[in-house]
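Researcher: Going back to the complex we discussed earlier. I've cleaned up the inputs and rechecked each line, so this should be the final set. Can you rerun the prediction on the complete assembly and write out the structure?
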Amino acid sequence: MQLCLEGVCAAYDGAPVLDQLSFEIPAGAIGCLLGASGSGKTTALRIIAGLEPVGAGRVVVGSRVLTDSTGRVPPEHRGIGMVFQDFALLPHLSVLDNVRFGLHRMPATSRESRARDVLAAVGLAALTDRHPHQLSGGQQQRVALARALAPRPSLLLLDEPFSSLDLELRESLGQALRDLLLAEGTTALLVTHSQHEAFALADLVGVLDQGRLRQWDTAYNLYHRPADRMVADFVGEGAFLRGERRADGTIVTELGEFAASNPGAAGPVEVLLRPDDLVHDDTSGLRARVRHKVFRGGEMLYTLTLASGAEVLALVPSHHDHPIGADVGVRPDLAHVIAFAAPSAAPAFA
Amino acid sequence: MATAPPFQPELHAAALAPRRLRGRGRGVSWHLVALAIATPALAVLLVIAAALLQPDAEVWAHLSAHVLPRASWNTLWLVLGVGLGVSVLGTGLAAVVALCEFPGRAFFAWALLLPLAVPAYVLATVYIGLFDYAGPFQSLLREHVPGVSAIEVRNRWGAMAVLILTLYPYVYLVVRNALASQGARLMEVARLMGHPPAQAFRRAALPLALPWIGGGTLLAMMETLADFGAVAAFNYDTLTTAIYRTWYGLFSVSGALQIAAVLLLFVLALLALEQRARSGQRFVSLGAAPVLRRRLAPRGAWIATLTCTLVWVLAFALPVGQLLLWAAREVDGLDRRYWLLAANSLQLALGAALLLPALALALSWAQRRAPTAAMSWLARLATLGYAMPGALLAVAFFAAAGLVLHGMPGLTGMLRGSIVLLLVAYTVRFLAVAATPVNGAALRLKPSVEEAARNLGVSGLRLFLKVHLPLLRGGVLTAALLVFVDVMKEMPITLMTRPFGWDTLAVRIFEFTTEGQWQRAALPALAIVAVGLLPTYWLHRGSEHATLS
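Model: Rerun complete. Updated structure for the full complex:
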């Protein structure tokens, strides 16, 4: 079911944790709140689950208002599933009983078969009689997921679902999770500090910074059309190149002139240059010096110094191997020209 | 009476062992060290087993006809009653404090631990002084309510009530920590999965807490079994008082030993149960996300606040207040005699506080250097005494010393005239209390830390001063503090094996109580309560780190 947050505010001991948080996830889609620790993302999750109250605003699932500033539906009547960061499995129950734990409203005859079906879907059909302490971290995570999905929640919440797992497991489980959520048609919201996780799993991603939602958009737009400098910094790699915005929207930099993709006032600006915005081209007249390079298998990430001394990044097929200190030709290839007022000339945003 | 629920050291020997190849020779000497430390405990078991296997027929006939049935029955009653009482009271208070929000919660979270500072025999003295026939309560009652005759408080129910009020913190502390760190979290899960709060508690939090409830209750039952002062004050005959009467009344050491053997069977039964409870205590690692306590509706909040207040007043405020009142009328009791008592108590407590942490450290090091199966059995044996009642240890030591020193009357006299025997008995009773913090500190000193230091060229004395000492210091000091307090409060061992005329504060309290001079017991009792407050504070601080509140 669709999830909608409208102007949600929350505070701990007077200190604001969430400030006017609003976003919407359409039914069946997967959303993600991306933010550093302390950004308020876990609080947002706990508010949606009904574990904590709001100061202002509303939480609406489908057409049902679950929380507003006057009260909240208790967690047990929300029909929302949650996968905790630490999994929070019941240590005294077997895997099967953990999954069956939330099925008490189902007819008794179908409880066990539903639990077994979900466990099979997460690949744990063979481990139903084990206890949580006999499982590996990845297996515990899948039990937690199966347990949350078994009652067919209208919404599934995932708190840093992969943070305690190693990298390889994250990737394989992430793909499996996405397939499973799509198969069950479950609307889901996860919170994470890892943009890889966000990009791999979510249809819509929001960047949360000190309790404020900076942008709620697709991963593509977050990367290529960041709404502000904080988002541009937080998501992906890149560099900022100084330039000047003219009144007609043209931006002049030492790499040439570009038409700005985002509106703004005339004056000194900084243009976002992603590593794939700069193409290696030996024939180009624009030269840059190799300062640093990182081999990434298929590609090489060069840190280059331009004539002005400005540093930029360039992602280049790795067979173009240049030594540090060499001069190479580069050519800008910007699909989106995102420029922000230079920090010195503009009022700094929060 | 042990202050901290003494947990037996669970050293993971394999984890501690440096991954270094070593010859067999060194291991043998460490085994000898451990054997030496475990010898007194072993001697106790052997002496009592001998009494069990070769009963003195004549004495046995008398005991089994006139003493044992009644004492065993009473003991069983008391242990079961106190067990039921502390598990209900301790769990109830723990659940309310850990999971709910109500006025005064933050205060009661630590204040409900304070009764740990009041030994059962002190509480017994106060309550008998207050509620006995001649006490203020019954006098008032007779004056204002016509037709009221004498109410007997010195009975099973009085002893049970006093022991429950003293021992419920054993359950309260561990269950509160288990619920606050893990139970509250699992209740959130249960509620998200559609279970209303009461059901969530029953199905998620309570099963999780059960092993802790069982463990705490069994420790309290062991203390009940070990209690001598409170039951003696209430004229309630149990196996411990039977040992004392047979020994000091009938002058029959062999008879006392046979009663001790029966008592040992009770102890072993409780130990076996406790081991089972402990194996069920699993920690699930949960993150540090804040857990909200449930805000109680006004009616529930009132009931919670009133209940906590009532327990706190009955178990701590009332007895301490009464002691202060009595002490104020007895200020001239602060004479030379009093300070002599205090000096004796201090001397014993300091002696034990120096000796036991050192022995615990040696035992811990032996386990680390020679992690064999035999070693872990020796360590278990050496720390088994926390379950042994003081009266049992006293008579067993007396008998063992008599056997060892048979035919050496000079040496026997010397030993009986010194406090060596006392210190050895304390070692058996309280080594586990010292071993818990020392082993905890030793666990932090991972072999890789030592190896890293060596790798950096630090060894020998520098290694000890720079690595071992700073890491072990906290654990050793804690051990010294806990042992100091436990020996200050200890009564039956001191009473029964002390050199002639060697009275301590605790022994005087017992004597004043048996003589019915409650008021005069107030000054020594206050000193012991004051000392007992130290580890209570320490326990609370320690557990604050474990919980999230």
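Model: Worth noting: The first helix of chain B runs from residue 13 to 16.
Researcher: Good, that matches what I expected from the previous run.
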